[in-house]
Write a structure and sequence with these properties.
Keywords: Signal. InterPro entries: WG_beta_rep. Pfam families: WG_beta_rep. It comes from Algoriphagus chordae. The protein has 521 residues and is mainly β. Among the domains are: 35 residues, no CATH class; 132 residues, no CATH class. The protein is 0% helix and 58% strand. It has no helices and 57 strands. It has a 4-stranded antiparallel sheet with strand order 3-2-55-54, with no helix packed on it. A 4-stranded antiparallel sheet has the order 4-5-6-7, with no helix packed on it. The protein has a 4-stranded antiparallel sheet with strand order 8-9-10-11, with no helix packed on it. It is flat and about 80 Å long. The chain starts with 12 loop residues before the first strand and ends with a strand.
């Protein structure tokens, strides 16, 4: 022993011994707020109804049903969870575990892409494939690119050659393999373009001169002087439309020209509109088109035909609801019906769709409200008005947000910094950095005095105040005291987790010179 620790100099020595000075404690309750157990973890992650992960220090563990450590996940943080795969990050890279606890990839990869039945991992330009059914990892080699399609095919590229390593012919090469939002891969060989299904089989032989994807399982092509509209099929793809006349596909608009004149607006598998005298088509939204004619009429075309019949004295027609469509004429907006008749004459700088028989209009800078007959409900005094829903709208003026009823009356006299609708019709409000809650009729349920607020369900609101978290009901009564660092809820398993600082067991040892040790706790 060092000489400094002599009886003369060490009349009293005190040692503090603890399990972990940084550990956290968790209390687990059922949803009736009955204490079930206490746990020692720094963090708990609820990944799904059956997958929970606990962390102590730099150690992650998959937890059993009784929330005790069951499987070490080896890494220091959860990188991503995509059922059934848990991706874990460690000092040397990313690895993967099955949610049942099986380690399937060591923690050494830079990137891992997931599919239900396999994983694609990479380091630099080297790739590996783990297949769940075979329970093994295969080295794919050094590649320029590898990706998983949305149907579970793997496309790899090395130089100018593509291949499908999971197909029945993994060594076959292609000039191009391109996936899309649909279920079929676009393939190109020297003989032409074709389509491949999720099993890697051709459902359209590679004989088409040009082919490109349009939407869903539809494709636009050209072959032997014919333009083709093709629909993918798991057994054999179908040519749904063919024409010797020119069909163009640009800016998501497909048009057919006969003898050089625009004649048809096409959809993915055929003719949407066949009419003479068309001069131009503008797409204004999904399956929505403004169609222009030589006689200066404009109509609004939808998926099932005319939404607004072609009409004169209009510059554009927008999508509408409740039988009225915002339309612009000579720089001003009004509303037309489906027959192309003005119901509200053009007089606004801007106009919105109707919702619950109310629309917003803008004059110069500000917004007001009108009825379907054009009657003014409120003057244009608002900077912003959001659409009505269940009788209420959120509006903004002077930087503050308010709730309006269908008469245009303000329901909260004092404005908020922000108002958000919840999925069940309540309103989250913010004021001076604090959060509160209003009910579906704009009545204050919880005052704006909390740093954070989350309404899990009726009469169960997780709140944070002065750095502490707890649970209150909508009357403001405390369900779980605001005394915790964190509150997690697992409704599927009827469990509530509360996190608090852990006060470890301490043993104090007092050593006095020339006397026996005295121990106390």
């Amino acid at each position: 022993m060092n000489k400094i620790f002599t009886p003369l100099l060490s009349l009293l020595l005190t040692f503090w011994i603890s399990e972990s000075a940084q550990a956290q404690s968790w209390e687990v309750y059922n949803t009736k707020i009955q204490l079930q157990s206490r746990l020692i973890y720094d963090d708990i992650d609820i990944l799904s109804e059956t997958v929970r992960v606990g962390k102590v220090g730099d150690e992650l563990s998959l937890l059993s049903n009784d929330l005790s450590p069951a499987v070490s996940l080896e890494g220091t943080e959860i990188y991503q969870y995509l059922s059934p795969w848990i991706l874990v990050k460690g000092p040397n890279g990313i690895g993967a575990f099955h949610e049942y606890g099986q380690k399937v990839l060591p923690l050494e990869y830079e990137k891992i892409d997931t599919y239900f039945s396999f994983l694609l991992a990479s380091k630099g330009n080297e790739y590996w494939l783990f297949q769940k059914g075979h329970n093994k990892t295969t080295y794919l080699g050094e590649l320029d690119e590898a990706k998983i399609t949305n149907t579970g095919l793997i496309i790899v590229r090395k130089g100018d050659e593509y291949s499908l390593p999971l197909s029945i012919n993994p060594d076959k090469t292609f000039e191009l393999l391109s996936d899309n939002e649909g279920e079929f891969v676009l393939a190109k060989e020297a003989s032409g373009y074709g389509l491949i299904n999720r099993e890697g089989d051709y459902v359209m032989d590679p004989i088409i001169e040009t082919l490109q994807h349009t939407h869903s399982n539809f494709f636009y092509g050209f072959n032997q002087d014919q333009y083709l509209l093709i629909e993918g099929n798991d057994i054999k793809s179908n040519i749904r439309y063919n024409s010797f006349h020119k069909i163009t596909f640009e800016n998501d608009i497909m048009l057919e020209y006969i003898h050089g004149k625009l004649r048809r607006v096409m959809e993915d598998d055929g003719i949407l509109l066949d009419d003479v005298g068309m001069t131009a088509v503008n797409k204004i939204g999904k399956d929505l088109y403004n169609v222009h004619f030589r006689d200066e009429k404009i109509g609004l075309l939808g998926k099932k035909g005319w939404l607004v019949q072609p009409m004169l004295d209009v510059e554009e027609i927008e999508f509408g609801t409740e039988g009225l469509f915002p339309a612009k004429s000579k720089g001003a907006f009004g509303y037309v019906n489906s027959a192309g008749t003005w119901i509200i004459e053009p007089q606004y700088a801007e106009a919105t769709m109707f919702a619950e028989n109310i629309a917003a209009y803008r004059t110069t800078q500000n917004w007001g409200l009108i009825s379907p007959s054009g009657e003014q409900i409120s003057e244009a005094t608002w900077e912003e008005i959001k659409p009505f829903y269940k009788g209420l709208a959120i509006a903004k003026t002077n930087g503050k947000y308010f709730l309006l009823n269908t008469f245009g009356a303000v329901l909260n006299s004092e404005g908020f910094d922000n108002i958000y609708r919840t999925t069940d019709g309540y309103f989250m409000v913010e004021k001076s950095g604090k959060s509160g809650l209003l009910d579906s009729e704009a009545n204050e349920v919880i005052p704006a005095e909390f740093e954070n607020l989350r309404r899990e369900r009726k009469n169960f609101v997780i709140v944070q105040k002065d750095g502490f978290t707890g649970v209150i009901n909508e009357a403001g009564d405390i369900i779980i005291p605001l005394a915790y660092e964190e509150v997690l809820v697992d409704w599927a398993n009827d469990q509530i987790f509360t996190k608090n600082n852990y006060t470890p067991t301490v043993i104090k040892i007092v050593v006095e010179s020339n006397k026996k040790n005295k121990k106390g706790a």
